[in-house]
Amino acid sequence: MELDHVAARLVSGKLGGVEVERNVDLKRIEAAVREILLAVGEDPDRDGLRKTPARVARAYAELFAGLRVDPAQVLSTTFEADHEELVLVRDIEVMSMCEHHLLPFHGVAHIGYIPGHDGRITGLSKLARLVEVYARRPQVQERLNSQIADLLMAELAPRGVIVVIECEHMCMSMRGIQKGGSRTITSAVRGLLRDDAKSRAEAMSLILRG
Ligand SMILES: Nc1nc2c(ncn2[C@@H]2O[C@H](COP(=O)(O)OP(=O)(O)OP(=O)(O)O)[C@@H](O)[C@H]2O)c(=O)[nH]1
Ligand SMILES: [Zn+2]
């Protein structure tokens, strides 16, 4: 990237509870958005649109901040607990951007795991923070889903993990096929929750109960 003539601005903040320094090239996004406005036949210099490229640049820096966060850091705090049964957090809000159209998809994630033999658990909020870090990237729902499951397996070494995500995709509602209200359900199951039908059925029934 030619940083000499690009006024790259350092935007910092927190995402998923992890400090993020993100050197986002806001000026480059602004220039691109101005081009888009011109291309669709708008006047980017009219009053209402004058600040739009800068606003969109800041919004994109926020929406894609997950690209600059190491998700494993979210799970850096773990606790020992004498709990060998399922832990399930339902209805975690998901807001992400589909990588095909850069339009939002939104819905909920349900994340469950059975702690490993060392009984290591994580704070419940960390599951929601993990969703946020992976969602704030250009995504497809399937990858978002499996990334969450795989990281939990790698970091917590649980007996099993189940992640179910249900989302509505704006690229299907607002454009293209224009089927508003359809929801896509994906799942990723790992370890005991994949291999043991009884454990999986118990987790699924709790997830589907809502
Ligand atoms: N598997 C998957 N597909 C997605 C996701 N988000 C959007 N899509 C789909 O990505 C596909 C891209 O297909 P293309 O044919 O390349 O693009 P398009 O011409 O804009 O497709 P249409 O949406 O059918 O008009 C579409 O079928 C979208 O519905 C996602 O999270 N997972
Ligand atoms: Zn899409």
TrEMBL record:
Its EC number is 3.5.4.16. InterPro entries: GTP-CH-I_C/QueF, GTP-CH-I_N, GTP_CycHdrlase_I, GTP_CycHdrlase_I_CS, GTP_CycHdrlase_I_dom. Zn(2+) binds at C98, H101, C171. Pathway: Cofactor biosynthesis; 7,8-dihydroneopterin triphosphate biosynthesis; 7,8-dihydroneopterin triphosphate from GTP: step 1/1. One of its GO terms (biological process) is tetrahydrobiopterin biosynthetic process. It comes from the Bacteria. Pfam families: GTP_cyclohydroI (PF01227). Keywords: GTP-binding, Hydrolase, Metal-binding, Nucleotide-binding, One-carbon metabolism, Zinc. GO terms for cellular component: cytoplasm. One of its GO terms (molecular function) is zinc ion binding. SUPFAM superfamilies: Tetrahydrobiopterin biosynthesis enzymes-like. It catalyses: GTP + H2O = 7,8-dihydroneopterin 3'-triphosphate + formate + H(+). PROSITE patterns: GTP_CYCLOHYDROL_1_1 (PS00859), GTP_CYCLOHYDROL_1_2 (PS00860). Residues 29-207 form the GTP cyclohydrolase I domain. Belongs to the GTP cyclohydrolase I family. Homopolymer. This is GTP cyclohydrolase 1. It comes from Dactylosporangium siamense. The lineage of its organism: Bacteria, Bacillati, Actinomycetota, Actinomycetes, Micromonosporales. The gene is folE_1.
